[in-house]
Write a structure and sequence with these properties.
The chain is of the alpha+beta class and 788 residues long. 20% of the residues lie in helices and 27% in strands. A 6-stranded mixed sheet has the order 25-24-23-26-27-30, sandwiched between helices. A 5-stranded antiparallel sheet has the order 31-5-33-37-36, with helices on one face. Pfam families: CLCA (PF08434), VWA_2 (PF13519).
């Protein structure tokens, strides 16, 4: 065959003339030992990069593309592959991020997303670059045990740049409790710092003690439960109750490419600007007098707390805050004013983030630096104290504006009326006459000196197409305000001095104690192990550096497991994690646990003011009310986690006893809020990650967002023997620092694979294993890859 195929040439003649032997001369090599590398084939990762330029509209090309690519997606691409889609013409658009092919539905979903319209030029490089750009981290976990087991994965990260805030989501309900079957409203505030993120895909998952979880798409369209369109607040009614009980809610957010845009603009650190404080005090003094008259001698600002950022230098007259916080979380908001960068939609306009129903409290009042310091803006917006009263009515009493910039006039018979009192000019713009004889309404304008009252039932215009009429069923603002809790048994009084008392509160590093139930019932449903796993994640990844943390265990009595420890190294975190309780026995005495927690918290400065307790319990305790008074007087914040269906019904009352500030306003420098303790619940369903979610939600409230841990993924699944659990985690450019993947299991260590966007593969040997807690942790060094 050699002679036949090579024209009778010798084998060495053919070999020596191959490319391998060009300029390849004999050498003396001492070791001829080969280097062996093992390459393990994994599931396919593929992106369709499809031309959608104008020329694709000819010769029926775009339709043929859909047909051929559709066949590929429905019939050719293998199960467990990852597929994304990019369309390009003059520029590229990411149509779909990587999606795992695990069902017929996932194939059909991708097929239906194939491009249908052709236009523009052709930029192939833009398409290829977009195909590389997914930023997807993929995980695959195989259960090697001989029986099914539950596996969970949690991924957390921190801000990539301390000067650029990360994108965060904060979930809220319109009320903490309801009576079945009255609906609840789920809200999700998606923001980057104080800038709203619009155009996102937001999904709420409601987990119930019985039955399957319910997924709801939350909308920011100004319809249904959503009050204002494109304000970064996504909403939806929830009505799918199975009966009374505890329900847990978590929210996930993904961007819609081509719509969502994140800022990379650096935010200035909080600094001491005398004008903030001085002008703020003058604003509140003026507002106190104006509010007293507007509420018919019933309400004024008596106590004012100014919460100063941790970055400001301490002064002798600064006090430590108790239940005030910078954290943007669900709270019993008594007062909340922030001074921050201009809003992308409103600029320097003062506004209140308000997305509840009529009479519901708002989230916060937003003033800009320019509004506080530039006196020339007074002519535009009105005197600052009057503006504060207008916004305060939004925030505190849940009333709405009585103007409508989009509909300045409305028809009454054959004539047109302005939405409020005034004279239209020939261009149909509305400019209020400065010389008004009417005294209403504060919710229409703050720029007219003669306007000093809220409209009441005699002066209210029910026909005007404004937000107050829409949201409050045509009720007047004073009718809504006067029926709020603030005005119950609140009769007019003559007060000689309306001067507020100002207190400066300076944020300090976090001081926290874990108070953990170790009673006998924690031995059931794998609870004590799940506690160790979830609290371990909190200690290793969530709690911020320079915080102080202690641990208390309690059953029939309480035991201090460890006094306050400064979190200043990885070793300090691991030491605390290894001390988490492992044995359960005895009854449940929650008050003993709380008192021991207070004892630990006093270890730094002798006080519990502003400190935090994280209280986890699964048991009933009829004596919990015995320590309500101590909790109220402590000045501490108590976060509660109810584990399982039998946790004490009074548990939520403990957290609601903290964070309540009656008859006060907190004027807050930078971004600050007032809150009570957070309330969480976790079911005993092992394939749900509720307990981990509760602990990962306990981020700091000290205003330093670069230190806050952001949860990127939280998922769990019961996997059959030798079956797989696959998923994708997308890391956007605002995060990526201190990224960690944590995997937990219940029986035997699974096979774990993590692939970064460049294709680097991490396996079991790369994880930090804890075979006692059945936990594996993969910290990603440096900044986690976002793209190629």
């Amino acid at each position: 065959m050699q002679n036949k195929m090579c024209d009778e040439r010798s084998t060495w003649d053919v070999i020596s003339k191959s490319d391998d032997f060009k300029n390849n001369h004999p050498t003396n090599i001492t070791s001829l030992e080969p280097k062996f590398t093992f390459l393990h084939a994994k599931d396919r990762v593929l992106c369709l990069v499809l031309d959608t330029s104008g020329s694709m509209d000819s010769e029926n090309r775009i339709e043929r593309l859909q047909q051929a690519a559709g066949i590929f997606l429905l019939q050719i691409i293998e199960d467990q592959s990852y597929v994304g889609i990019v369309g390009f013409h003059s520029y590229a658009t990411e149509i779909q991020k990587l999606t795992v092919i695990e069902s017929e539905d996932s194939r059909k979903k991708l097929k239906n997303l194939l491009p249908k319209i052709a236009s523009g030029g052709t930029n192939i490089c833009a398409g290829v670059q977009a195909g590389f750009q997914s930023g997807a981290w993929m995980y695959s976990i195989q259960n090697g045990a001989g029986m099914p087991q539950v596996v969970t994965i949690t991924v957390t990260s921190r801000a990539a740049d301390e000067n650029i805030p990360p994108v965060t989501v904060n979930a809220h309900l319109n009320q903490d409790t309801t009576s079945y079957p009255k609906p609840l409203i789920i809200f999700a505030e998606v923001s980057q710092g104080f800038l709203p993120v619009v155009g996102a895909n937001v999904t709420a998952t409601v987990e119930r003690a019985e039955g399957q979880p319910v997924n709801l798409e939350l909308l920011d369209n100004g319809g249904g439960a959503d009050a204002v369109r494109n304000d970064g607040v996504y909403s939806r009614y929830f009505i799918e109750f199975l009966g009374n009980g505890r329900y847990t809610i978590k929210v996930s957010v993904q961007g819609k490419d081509g719509i969502v845009r994140l800022t990379t603009r650096k935010q200035s650190h909080a600094m001491y600007i005398p004008g903030y404080v001085q002008n703020g005090k003058e604003m509140v003094r003026s507002a106190s007098n104006f509010l007293y008259k507007a509420t018919k001698h019933r309400v004024y600002f008596r106590d004012v707390k100014i919460l100063l950022p941790i970055t400001w230098n301490s002064q002798p007259n600064y006090q430590r805050p108790s239940t005030q916080s910078y954290e943007k979380v669900k709270a019993e908001i008594m007062a909340n004013v922030i001074i921050a960068n201009p809003h992308t939609q409103y600029g320097d306009d003062p506004y209140t983030l308000q997305y509840g129903q009529c009479g519901d409290k708002g989230r916060y009042i937003h003033f800009t630096q320019n509004f506080m310091l530039d006196d020339s803006l007074i002519q535009l917006y009105g005197e600052r104290g009057r503006v504060l009263v207008h916004e305060w009515a939004h925030l505190r009493w849940g009333v709405f504006d009585e103007y409508n910039d989009l509909v300045p006039f409305y028809a009454v018979g054959n004539t047109y009326e302005a939405t409020s009192t005034g004279l239209p000019d020939t261009d149909c713009n509305f400019f209020p006459d400065q010389n008004q004889v009417t005294s209403t309404s504060i919710m229409y304008t703050t720029g007219l000196p003669g306007v000093v009252d809220f409209c009441d039932n005699k002066t209210h215009n029910r026909e005007a197409p404004n937000m107050q009429n829409k949201m409050c069923d045509e009720r007047s603002t004073w009718d809504v305000i006067s029926k709020s809790d603030d005005f119950k048994n609140n009769h007019p009084t003559n007060i000689t001095s309306l001067e507020p008392k100002f207190t400066f509160l300076h944020v300090k590093d976090r001081v926290l104690c874990l108070v953990l139930d170790t009673s006998g019932s924690m031995g059931s449903e794998n609870r004590i192990q799940r506690l160790q796993q979830a609290a371990g994640i909190f200690l290793l990844q969530i709690i911020e550096d320079q915080s102080y943390v202690g641990i208390v265990g309690f059953h029939s009595y309480a035991k201090v497991i460890h006094e306050l420890t400064l979190i200043e190294s990885e070793d300090a975190r691991k030491k605390l994690k290894n001390l988490l309780p492992k044995i359960s026995s005895g009854g449940t005495n929650i008050c003993e646990g709380v008192r021991a927690g207070f004892q630990v918290l006093r270890g730094d400065d002798g006080s519990t003011n502003g400190d935090e307790i994280v209280l986890l319990t699964d048991g009933e305790d009829s004596g919990i009310s015995r320590c309500f008074s101590e909790v109220e007087q402590s000045g501490a914040v108590i976060h509660t986690i109810a584990l399982g269906p039998k946790a004490a019904k009074e548990l939520e009352q403990l957290s609601s006893k903290t964070g309540i500030c009656e008859h006060c306003i907190d004027l807050i420098i930078s971004h600050v809020q007032s809150l009570g303790g957070l309330q969480y619940a976790a079911t005993d369903k092992l394939d749900e990650n509720g307990l981990v979610d509760a602990f990962t939600g306990l981020v700091s409230g000290n205003g330093n967002m670069s230190q806050q841990s952001i949860q990127l993924e939280s998922s769990g699944k019961s996997i059959a023997s030798n079956d797989w659990f696959n998923g994708t985690v997308f890391i956007d450019k605002s995060v990526g620092k201190n990224t960690s993947f944590v995997i937990t299991w219940g029986i035997d260590t699974p096979e774990m694979f993590i692939r970064d966007p460049k294709g680097k593969l991490y396996r079991n040997g790369n994880f930090e294993m804890d075979r006692v807690l059945f936990t594996a942790r993969l910290p990603i060094p440096g900044l986690a890859q976002v793209r190629f």
